[in-house]
Design brief:
Number of helices: 5
Strand content: under 5%
Largest sheet: none
Distance between the termini: 77 Å
Number of strands: 0
Structural class: mainly alpha
Order of helices and strands: HHHHH
């Protein structure tokens, strides 16, 4: 969720491209919803939106707002990875050249090595150490559970060995008994 909606931290080129594909998918869904709301059906030409186009405008507004938010969040974090301020993302508002500049800089330039003013590189530092700590804690808990299970089995086996043998009764050997046919 932080990749698409948060403004802090850093992301690499791959995550930035994934966010751009998410924006593209969101725009495609928005256009599909507009076509659906507009009343277009297979075999008919797209009709002009009617005067009660409040629902079409609402779909367009929600789709555009989410697309802009996700694009800015990803671009700001990508500029953080380049050790630049997130204000550089305002270049997106410059027609033609601004979008091209952001595309080249965020999509193809490598980020700064190591920590910078905006934190450790994506995929290293705190998140990886937290994951390693969680994995080692789970491994330790599992070994404790296996040890306690094996001691319980040993205790049950020793109780069964120390129990006195029960007297065995002899089964009847005749045609009597449940489920037997009398011959």
């Amino acid at each position: 969720m932080n990749l698409l909606f948060g403004f802090s931290g850093r992301i690499g080129r791959g995550q930035w491209w994934l966010a751009q594909f998410a924006v593209l998918a969101l725009l495609v869904v928005t256009v599909a919803a507009l076509v659906h709301v507009g009343g277009a059906s297979a075999g008919h030409r797209l009709r002009a939106f009617q005067s009660d186009g409040l629902s079409a405008n609402l779909v367009l507004l929600i789709g555009a707002a989410l697309s802009i938010w996700v694009n800015f969040a990803a671009t700001i974090k990508r500029y953080h990875d380049l050790d630049k301020s997130g204000r550089w993302s305002l270049l997106l508002f410059l027609p033609y050249i601004g979008g091209l500049w952001v595309l080249v800089e965020c999509g193809f330039f490598s980020g700064s090595d190591g920590n910078n003013d905006y934190g450790p590189p994506y995929g290293t530092g705190d998140s990886r150490s937290d994951l390693n700590a969680h994995i080692s804690r789970m491994t330790a808990e599992r070994s404790v559970q296996q040890q306690s299970r094996s001691t319980r089995l040993e205790q049950q086996a020793s109780r069964m060995d120390s129990a006195p043998p029960t007297s065995q009764t002899r089964r009847p050997t005749g045609p009597t008994g449940f489920g037997r046919r009398g011959l």
